[in-house]
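Table S2 (continued). Query chain:
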Amino acid sequence: GMHIVALNSVKSAVEMLDKKNSIYSNRQVAPSMSGEPELMGYSQTMAYLQYGERFRSFRKNCHRIFGSRTALVAYHPIDEMETCRFLKRVLTKLDRLQAYVRRTAGAVILCICYGYEVKEHGDPLVDMA
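Corresponding output:
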């Protein structure tokens, strides 16, 4: 169950949510994932961080890199190139659509995050994912 608190005044809400947010705010972890991030070594990644200074720093950096149209324009050439490759693959062999979607998503992420260009066939990083 989830607890819900109803406040009767704007002043109390602002004080509770803005001024003391570090006390009252946190991020829920999915029950099925609660013990696994530590085992997999992912506990310090943004997806599993609890609300706090480290999470705010991650979020601030993500917003700086991806948080505006101007910032995203830099990634349009990568998106266009991988979309063209995706469409060519689909036109050639439609029955492998799911594999092509997976490969394209992986290629875009790897290129944007690491500058890694995925090989057309048998790329070890895409195959591993």
